[in-house]
Amino acid sequence: MGFKSGFVALVGKPNVGKSTLLNAFLGRKIAIATAKPQTTRNRIQGVLHSPQGQIVFVDTPGIIKPRHKLDERLETSVRRAFKEVDVIAHVVDISKPPREEEIRVARMVSQSGQPAILIGNKSDLVLHTDGRLEPYLSLAPYRHTFAVSAQFEIGLDSVVATLWDLLPEGMPYFPEDVVTNQTEDFYISEVIREKILEQTRDEVPHSVAVTVEERQMRSEQLMYIRASIYVERDSQKAIIIGNRGQMLKQVGQLARRDLEEYYSKQVYLDLWVKVRGHWRDQDAWLTRLGYPKRET
């Protein structure tokens, strides 16, 4: 058998563990993952290198019924992924039966015409996995089904072995030392956003965007980073800053810890919170933040 290479899209509704699964496949943290739905907003590629070949996993935003222009652009990103990959991995929460959102995702999988597999994640939450995936089997033509736990890395080897069978022979897409397509600024902004999602109440997370304004080596041991945190209302700004700045300080400390591990040096993180009303419905801002335009 020759060298295998190809792209595998991880798709599904929000909060089924796609990002956790991506990190588990690669054995390192590439994508942020929290308990909040819609943590993932961008397509993130993670590369699994092996003597057998190269699997490029594509983590996609959770699919929901769009409520504003940001949701529309996120769905556009997912639909493009359907067209550009070799295999679709529909990830579901095995502890729950399929609902309207899952049926919508399965319909998209079926309409894509791409080879598809079904991954039932969160198997650690159920006593028995037997029969748990049967309700999904009539929704789309899945070639293989799996019950896994991304959190505890159970059942992943079987998925990878099957993907080697499904992927075509070809040349590698990335050099051996590359594990993701993310830029430094994107990673920094995602780490900061992750800490905000983890620390704030439900009304804040979906209204937050982070941009890196400046990144500069101040010395051999110090990286200076200035980032802006955008929210839609003054009340959200007050929540992120917190009483006497304590929330923002906590977010900064947690983010700096991850970034210092990433850079292996000290990081000075300079965070600013700004209000940009209704940015999720402003095309110019969505484009500036890197979200693909909606397909017409």
Automatic annotation (TrEMBL):
Topological category with respect to the lipid bilayer: Peripheral membrane protein
G2: annotated segments: 38-42
Any one GO molecular-function label of the UniProt entry: ribosomal small subunit binding
Positions bound to GTP: 12-19, 59-63, 121-124
Main localization, broad class: cytoplasm
Matches recorded under InterPro entries: G_ERA_dom, GTP-bd, GTPase_Era-like, KH_dom-like_a/b, KH_dom_type_2, KH_sf_prok-type, P-loop_NTPase, Small_GTP-bd
GO terms (BP aspect): ribosomal small subunit assembly
GTP-binding keyword on record: yes
Region of interest (G5), ranges: 148-150
Renumbered residue ranges of the record's region G4: 121-124
GO CC field: cytosol; plasma membrane
UniProt-annotated stretches for the region G1: 12-19
Location(s) in or outside the cell: Cytoplasm; Cell membrane
Key words of the record: Cell membrane, Cytoplasm, GTP-binding, Membrane, Nucleotide-binding, Ribosome biogenesis, RNA-binding, rRNA-binding
Chain ranges of the Era-type G domain: 4-169
Pfam families associated with the record: KH_2, MMR_HSR1
Superkingdom of source: Bacteria
KH type-2 domain boundaries: 200-277
Region feature G3, mapped onto this chain: 59-62
Function, as annotated: An essential GTPase that binds both GDP and GTP, with rapid nucleotide exchange. Plays a role in 16S rRNA processing and 30S ribosomal subunit biogenesis and possibly also in cell cycle regulation and energy metabolism.
Similarity field: Belongs to the TRAFAC class TrmE-Era-EngA-EngB-Septin-like GTPase superfamily. Era GTPase family.
NCBIfam families xref list: era (TIGR00436), PRK00089.1 (NF000908), small_GTP (TIGR00231)
Quaternary structure note: Monomer.
Protein name: GTPase Era
Organism: Sulfobacillus benefaciens
Taxonomic lineage: Bacteria, Bacillati, Bacillota, Clostridia, Eubacteriales
